[in-house]
Design a protein that fits this description.
This protein is about 30% helix and about 30% strand. It is globular. It is an alpha+beta fold. It has five domains: about 60 residues, Orthogonal Bundle (Arc Repressor Mutant, subunit A); about 70 residues, Beta Barrel (OB fold (Dihydrolipoamide Acetyltransferase, E2P)); about 300 residues, no CATH class; about 55 residues, no CATH class; about 80 residues, Beta Barrel (OB fold (Dihydrolipoamide Acetyltransferase, E2P)). It has 16 helices and 34 strands. The strands form eleven sheets. The protein has a five-stranded mixed β-sheet with strand order 10-9-12-13-11. The model has no long low-confidence stretch (mean pLDDT about 90). Strand 16 and strand 17 form a beta hairpin. The longest helix has about 35 residues. Helix 4 packs antiparallel against helix 16, helix 10 packs across helix 11 and helix 12 packs antiparallel against helix 14.
């Protein structure tokens, strides 16, 4: 079969393309030629000359099938490149064309399988990956580098200094010297010894390297920040509304590193209420295309670890100029929201303003005032609490999802190892602040999308059908649940129905986790798609510009400041947020494992939160860290995973383990290097 003839037919621009059989029929060939025809098609698809799209329809690639991006490599050693419209485009190992994670590449989309675009790397535009960190192991006469982050499915050979020995947990830096052919190893050479993974003080540098976090600001950024500090006059109210006479409260965690939101309230004579949501005017200081702006765009978000953080903008701004410090004038972008007696929004205005926060509270302080029912700030806090409770009730009645995942709270010792880990206490004052921030984000997204503003939305898509089917199968084994709708008409209220049924059950936390796993990750886009979890038709991020770049973008739109490449920024900000979340989780787990290493042998209470054919995933209740029990370690029977019933069951005695079930375990082995916690069930 001639490839040119196939391409010629496809170039005739059939509006939807051809299925294989349809295309074959156009050639009037005997049926015995179909196998050769399919082989020819396979070659054309692999070379990117034709594209296999939705429903298996074949078309000629157009300009929209090509794009440029940064390559990442997943744990299963497949590549993916973020795309501003399609999410991640997957690139199998055979289509990487020698590229390493971090490289800037040209990608061609080849097909769309189950709404997951598949592509191939056409060429490498820039070799960004030169220095890598990892540990060394020896095999078959060669030293190999096990990198902290996956950079290639190919092995990485490292030339080590002659006679130099390293323990398995020694971190080294190596330089890529020869990428070799796409099917051959990558070659590197030793540069320097960084430290040992057994040392808790290397945890930070290890995570920074693994996730390519930018933890140092360029000199020009710092110089710009110094100039801003010298030249900013907070007593200059020109073109700003004066809110300094309002009682204004900031409520933040005890360990808050920046203060970017504050609240004021005004009770009107007609019974209506005016809420002032004051947000730090970061866009006033972070000018488009300034050195600070370029660096903030690359970072996308701040990263918060349990004992330190990596800010998105220089500390001079986060801790001073942009921080709504008590008893100091500070610039804000203030959402002025009028509510009627039923808390329906009747008017919204957004003004550049100046505040002087006169009430600085932590969540704990505010909760104590409300619990005591007295104090000089009680009236304001109580009014805010009453409104907050009504807003929350209205939101849940409208179908918003109420998920409260417990968080670990760390008390750090001086040696980089936690001295205590506990479950963070959830306070009503957390909800109070959250409710007003959600209100501002929602009404701003709604109003300014209606006014054709090119706003950056925070979208949360509906779960995929396959995931809903799997979730229904799991829920059927956990109790008498009405099945969730297996259609795109599903909304968050159906998920909430499940949670309401287990409100007082020990399994609630595990079911919350399963519901979260069913839902896709939220993302940023210039196209409004709604927020499934909150059940909002419009939603954006307006309230945290100190730590999120999309919030700065929203502020600029509201201030009529033009910014280019907003679509690309939406995509990169989504990826930055995912990377930061992964880095924070991994850092937390390392510290949790170090904490467990220091404890004497003991029995822990855990909950089964997942299972595979290999064994059970167990979360330790008080420390909130996941471990694993292998099936072969369960000596009282031969256990297997029944996928249909979603249970782990013994063949002989029929002892059964289910998701959400409480168990007693002891620690078998801890590997901080591999972040593995092996557990043993205790009878």
């Amino acid at each position: 079969m001639n490839s040119k003839k196939i391409i010629k037919i496809l170039k005739q621009q059939h509006p939807r393309g051809y299925r294989k059989r349809e295309l074959f029929a156009t050639f009037n060939l005997p049926k015995k030629e179909y196998i050769k025809f399919r082989k020819t098609l396979k070659g054309l698809i692999s070379r990117g000359e034709i594209i296999k799209g939705e429903g298996g329809r074949l078309t000629i690639p157009d300009e929209n099938s090509m794009f440029t991006g940064i390559l990442s490599i997943s744990k299963i050693k497949n590549g993916y490149i973020p795309h501003e419209n399609f999410g991640n485009v997957d690139v199998g190992g055979g289509f990487l064309n020698g590229a390493l994670a971090g490289d800037t590449v040209n990608v061609q989309i080849l097909s769309n399988y189950k709404n997951r675009p598949q592509g191939r790397i056409v060429d490498i535009l820039k070799y960004n990956t030169k220095l890598v960190h990892g540990t060394v192991f020896f095999r078959r006469g060669r030293h190999y580098l096990e990198t902290h982050k996956f950079i290639s499915p190919r092995p990485i050979v490292v030339n080590m200094p002659h006679g130099k020995k390293f323990s398995p947990d020694t971190i080294i830096e190596a330089e890529i010297i020869d990428r070799g052919r796409p099917s051959h190893p990558v070659f590197s050479k030793f540069v320097k010894d960084i430290g040992s993974l057994s040392n808790p003080n290397t945890d930070y540098s290890h995570i920074v390297d693994k996730f390519s976090l930018r933890d140092e600001f360029p000199a020009q950024c710092l110089l710009e920040a110094e100039e801003l500090e010298k030249n900013t006059d907070f007593n200059n109210f020109e073109n700003r509304k004066d809110f300094t006479k309002l009682d204004t409260v900031t409520i933040d965690p005890d360990s808050a590193r920046d203060y970017d939101d504050a609240l004021s309230l005004k009770n009107n004579k007609d019974g209506s209420i005016t809420v002032f949501v004051h947000i730090a005017d970061v866009s006033h200081f972070v000018k488009v295309n300034s050195a600070i702006d370029k660096e903030a765009k690359l970072r996308g978000t701040s990263v918060y670890f349990v004992d330190q953080n990596i800010p998105m903008i220089p500390p001079t701004l986060t801790s001073n100029l942009c921080s709504l410090l008590p008893e100091k004038n500070r610039f804000t972008l203030t959402a002025i929201i009028d509510l009627d007696q039923n808390l329906n929004v009747t008017h919204l205005d957004v003004k550049k303003g100046v505040i002087n926060s006169n009430i600085r509270l932590t969540y704990t302080d505010a909760q104590a005032i409300l619990d005591n029912g007295e104090g000089e700030n009680f009236t304001l806090l109580n009014d805010l609490r009453i409104i907050s409770a009504k807003l929350r009730k209205n939101r849940f009645n409208s179908g918003s999802l109420n998920i409260e995942i417990p968080e670990a709270e760390f008390t750090m010792g001086n040696d980089g190892v936690p001295s205590k880990i506990s479950v963070k206490k959830h306070l009503k004052t957390h909800e109070l602040v959250e409710d007003f921030m959600l209100l501002a984000n929602r009404v701003i997204a709604q109003k300014f999308s209606e006014n054709d503003k090119s706003l950056m939305f925070r979208n949360h898509g509906k779960p995929e059908i396959e995931r809903l089917i799997a979730l229904n199968g799991l829920l059927a084994q956990l109790g008498d649940y009405k099945p969730l709708s297996i259609t795109q008409a599903i909304n968050a209220s159906e998920f909430q129905r499940v949670l309401d049924k287990v409100a007082d059950s020990e399994a609630r936390h595990m079911i919350e986790i399963q519901l979260l796993r069913t839902m896709p990750k939220a993302d940023y886009s210039l196209i409004n798609k709604g927020h499934f979890g909150l059940n909002f038709e419009h939603y954006c991020h307006f309230t945290s510009p100190i730590r999120r770049y999309p919030d700065i973008m929203v502020h600029r739109v509201l201030s009529d400041i033009q910014d280019e490449d907003a679509g690309k920024i939406a995509s990169s900000s989504t990826q930055s947020e995912i990377t930061a979340m992964k880095a924070e989780r991994e850092y937390n787990k390392i510290k949790q494992l170090r904490y467990l290493q220091e404890l004497p042998p003991q029995i822990y209470s855990g909950i089964v939160n997942g299972m595979t054919q290999r064994g059970l995933f167990i979360m330790l209740e008080d420390i909130l860290v996941d471990g694993f029990v292998r099936a072969e370690w369960m000596k009282d029977d031969y256990y297997y995973f029944d996928e249909n019933r979603y249970v782990f069951i013994g063949r002989r005695y029929k002892t059964t383990y289910r998701v959400g079930q409480k168990v007693q375990v002891e620690i078998k082995k801890i590997s901080v290097i591999k972040q593995k916690l092996d557990l043993q069930l205790v009878d």
